[in-house]
């Protein structure tokens, strides 16, 4: 496993997004715990969750509680594992996603996340999504208060544009360490934000990083095979290497910029082991020529 920088920490170059273990179509708990343990066995030290990762009609925080149980039951050392959670979103009974960026909600949600995770402080707390009904500076101010009172050690933002990233940097200073936006072979409209984070020294955490190669957990079960010929290069490189196209896609993301730390999901141990192996796959110039190059 190779490592990358997130704030003043070193974390695995490939993280794990635990959302599929708690939303619709989730596995049973035994397989969910085995999946997290497989990620840890593979050297993954960044686990991403959120209080809103639960099935409609279920209990908020399902995924956080699951990760806490997985870490507690793991037989190895977890002292270097960073659990990153998020606040500011929820689920509706019909399966939609809500947003609530009010400072009072974020501060209450962070305290509840801390209780579920069972740690002294939240390692990385991320504002899940800007709330159009709340001034962004007010939501960021709540994160600053959480940092000041020790509830949170490091802060991040998600689904943010260039202006919002600059605003967060101004309000949170060096305690802002990451931006988590959607970015994948199929969805590359966050390249301006990726370039900005690289310039500011912030980690960029692509969510749903396998779009185009497989579907997002938000879209249902992974297809596993890209039907669109636009992604044929990933399959060609994968075939020549004898590995999965998903592994090539993650290696391509790592190759985009040194501050990129993908957080692929997965609901099976085999999936997370394959994703983690991408950290050690270095593309050749000939392989890069077959893959998207604009940035």
Question: Describe it for me?
Answer:
The structure is a single chain. The chain has 295 residues and is an alpha/beta fold. Helices cover 37% and strands 15% of the residues. It is built from ten helices and eleven strands. Strands 3-4-5-8-9-10-11 form a seven-stranded parallel sheet, with helices on one face. A two-stranded antiparallel ribbon has the order 1-2. Helix 1 crosses helix 2, helix 1 (29-41) runs parallel beside helix 9 and helix 4 packs parallel to helix 5. The two termini are 26 Å apart.
Shape: globular
Distance between the termini: 26 Å
Task: Provide the helix percentage.
Answer: 25-40%
Weakly predicted, low-confidence segments: 216-226
Let me know the number of strands: 11
Quick check: average pLDDT?
Answer: 94
Strand order of the largest sheet: 3-4-5-8-9-10-11
Radius of gyration: 18 Å
Number of helical elements: 10
Which H/E pattern describes the elements? EEEHEHEEEHEHEHEHEHHHH
SSE layout:
Layout: E1 3-6, E2 9-12, E3 16-17, H1 29-41, E4 46-48, H2 62-73, E5 82-87, E6 89-91, E7 97-99, H3 103-117, E8 122-127, H4 136-148, E9 152-158, H5 162-172, E10 176-180, H6 191-200, E11 203-204, H7 232-241, H8 245-256, H9 269-277, H10 285-288
Parallel strand pairs: 3-4, 4-5, 5-8, 8-9, 9-10, 10-11
Antiparallel strand pairs: 1-2, 6-7
Helix pairs in contact: 1-2, 1-9, 3-4, 4-5, 7-8
